[in-house]
Structures are given as structure tokens and as C-alpha cells.
Write a structure and sequence with these properties.
alpha+beta; binds zinc ion
């Protein structure tokens, strides 16, 4: 996601070397709801992306994003103020703003041919593998209905890409 600077990209590059060791400090700090190691680094699709750092079997939960619980009304206001926003509406009344979340899954990009799916359940935003995901592969989901209303060009590059979000 594009809000991140070149300085972050440099950090991601050095982080890739650290990932080769068995347990990095990042792994030790990983919350229990992040089931598989995921690294954030520059994506061909858009800005930063979430990349598998270990094999992920089909159907298993990859992780979650936890953020700030807000009203849908507040979410709509925030969406008009910011071009890049990460809000998921949980219901007609509640939404979660992930803009300040440290969870790596918040960088998950959209693909029209995704390898993961997003599940909203009991106020949680969870990610599950649709198929086996290999280390180094970018994790993607179908954003589905978004507030971009087809105004944001899709650059996922998948066969059959819808062309817009
Ligand atoms: Zn696409």
C-alpha cells in the first residue's frame, strides 16, 4: 500500500536476510493470532504487500488484523479524508480502521485471482489460504465490494483481471 516510503522498502530488504534464521525477534513478537510468518515488502501489485515467509497449507488460517473499532458513520468520514485507507465494515453499524495496526496482514493486496480469502467473523478480520502458498509468494485476497466504486485501477496482473476496484 502506497503510503509507505522508500525508507520502509530498505528496511524490508534487510529483513529478508534475517528471515533465514530460525527465530527472528519479529517472530518472537508475533501475536498468537498470526499463525504463519509473513513479511511485509514492496509488491508488484501496489506499494507494500504481505508475503508468506513459510509454506502455508490450503484452508488454514494465516492470521488476522486487529484495529480500532469505530462506527460506520465515522468510517465514512475518515474515508473521505484519506486516499489510502484501511477500513473494513463488520456490520451496518460497526467498522474497524486498520490504519494504525502493526499486523502484517493489513498490507494484503487485492487480486482478481487471490490465493487467500478474507473472512469477517465475530468482529474479527481473518485470512485463510485458498490453496497452498509457497514461501516468497505474495498473499492476496479479493477485496470484493469496496468504496472505491470502480475508480481505482487494479494492477493485480491476474488472468481475467476486472481492471478496477
Ligand atoms: Zn485485478
Amino acid at each position: 500500500m502506497t503510503a509507505h516510503s522508500a525508507a520502509h522498502a530498505a528496511t524490508a530488504a534487510t529483513g529478508a536476510a534475517a528471515a533465514a534464521t530460525a527465530l527472528t525477534p519479529g517472530d518472537a513478537l508475533r501475536p498468537a493470532y498470526q499463525k504463519f510468518a509473513v513479511h511485509v515488502k514492496p509488491s508488484r501489485i501496489d506499494g507494500q504487500g504481505a508475503f508468506a515467509a513459510e509454506p502455508i497449507p490450503p484452508r488454514l488460517k494465516i492470521g488476522e488484523i486487529r484495529g480500532e473499532s469505530i462506527s460506520v458513520a465515522e468510517a465514512r468520514v475518515r474515508a473521505t479524508r484519506s486516499e489510502r485507507i484501511m477500513i473494513v465494515e463488520l456490520s451496518a453499524r460497526r467498522a474497524i480502521d486498520f490504519s494504525k495496526s502493526a499486523d502484517p496482514m493489513r498490507f494484503t493486496n487485492h487480486s482478481c485471482q487471490p490465493n487467500a480469502r478474507l473472512v469477517i467473523r465475530n468482529g474479527r478480520v481473518e485470512f485463510y489460504a485458498r490453496r497452498a502458498i509457497t514461501p516468497g509468494e505474495e498473499i492476496t485476497v479479493d477485496y470484493g465490494e469496496t468504496h472505491h466504486e470502480g475508480r481505482l485501477a487494479c494492477r493485480c496482473g491476474a488472468p481475467g483481471c476486472r481492471g478496477a476496484l
